[in-house]
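Supplementary Methods S3. Input chains for the assembly prediction are listed below.
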Amino acid sequence: MARIILDPDQLKLTIQRLAHQLTEDGLDVKQTVFIGIQPRGIKFADRVVDQIRKLLPGQKVQYGKLDITFYRDDVRDGIHLPNQTSIDFSIEGKTVILIDDVLYTGRTIRSALDALQDFGRPARVALCALIDRRFSRELPIQPDFCGKTIDSIVSQRVIVEWEHERVVLHEGAGA
Amino acid sequence: MRLKMQLSTKHLLGIRALTREDIELILSTAEQFKDVLQRPVKKVPSLRDVTIVNLFYENSTRTRISFELAEKRLSADTINFTASGSSVSKGETLLDTVNNILSMKVDMVVMRHSASGAPHFLAQHIPAAIVNAGDGINEHPTQGLLDALSMKQALGTLEGIRVAIIGDIMHSRVAMSNIYLLKKMGAEVMVAGPPTLIPPYIQEAFGVKVVYKVREALEWCDVANVLRIQLERQSQPLFSSLREYNLAYGVSRRLLDGLKKDIFIMHPGPINRGVELDSDVADSGHSLILQQVENGVAVRMAVLYLLAGKN
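Predicted structure tokens for the full assembly:
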């Protein structure tokens, strides 16, 4: 059984709202970098950054992609294949906006924070997530910018289906 | 292309036991590790709770350093063991030595041994993952993999490329691993050198071309992998003198200038300069030798990383 959490219109609106939120409060784009988390956060990050670029025409928005595979804490449980990391700018002293699609246990973000340290020492890191599964957290990590908060149980799965432009909650084993 | 998620083997004993998919997985993972090695912080925490022993029963400089660096870059704990100065000189057997080390809770063993098959023997008797860092005249799989990565980076593919392996084929574990790997990946292979240093069965057994003139091999190939003359493995002289070897089988600037094309030159090191390879070739712009050394760390990181999940 599957339930649609965000349909295409809602997904589009959510992304627009998040982009507005991110650019409000006097965002200093020169001191801010956006980093999407590989692999599934990238498609969401692409869209958010695209919106931000539309909101800030003529300004250089720095956007990178971070792979956290080598920073995971479960190498003994099975190997994960790495993806490309491309951060061709300095994050030293900058505000980093980490972008991922679904915030679940918090372990991916923990790994991303670890990985970021190897690229420099940011002044501040904030997290932007499309979906926050708030009762499934295993680490004390919360989003600063959030598209939608949902209550779900471990046996459910939240999948962002970009081919259909929607977010779906699936019932069944294997979260 | 979708890569499979894990290696088909628990150990890396040789290229012969790997599938084409295994090789593709190792090379693509190595490319990601190469990116890590370009960063300001060249270390990742992947193998933070893994202990690796480097068991070197035979002399080695670059392979041992390369493995050690790969292990440190992955945050593994390492122990270095060299046969000289150890209890091996008191008569301890290989299995006893390794079992003693394993009692100290070691997860992986990187092993170099002068006897062909030594790591295969260990793999049958101990539970740890074993990486062959060169066994006798059998195989040197990580060298084969790093050579392949260097060729792939230089030429864009391994499929259909022409590789000439030149020199002491008879005593070379590098040649064996290269032949197994390149044939699996669809490259064409030729071996060249003195007839006394080329096994007579090699053409039938491995489907490689054989020539005895180095010029002919150079004219044919895209990449020339020049091997070291391994005098220490020859029980009787197999050619008259180093000087004559250089004149007849050495790769020189004059030979390369005579070709109507550019080719890439590789060498697994250490180079006998002025014997199998002249200095002005080894240090030229078409030499991939230093890239090979750099790729060695990335390839070994990939192998250790991919095997760590198999424990």
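The interface with chain A takes residues 3, 5-6, 25, 28-29, 32-33, 35-36, 39-41, 43-47, 49-50, 305-306, 308-311 of chain B (CB under 8 Å). The mean pLDDT of chain B is 92.
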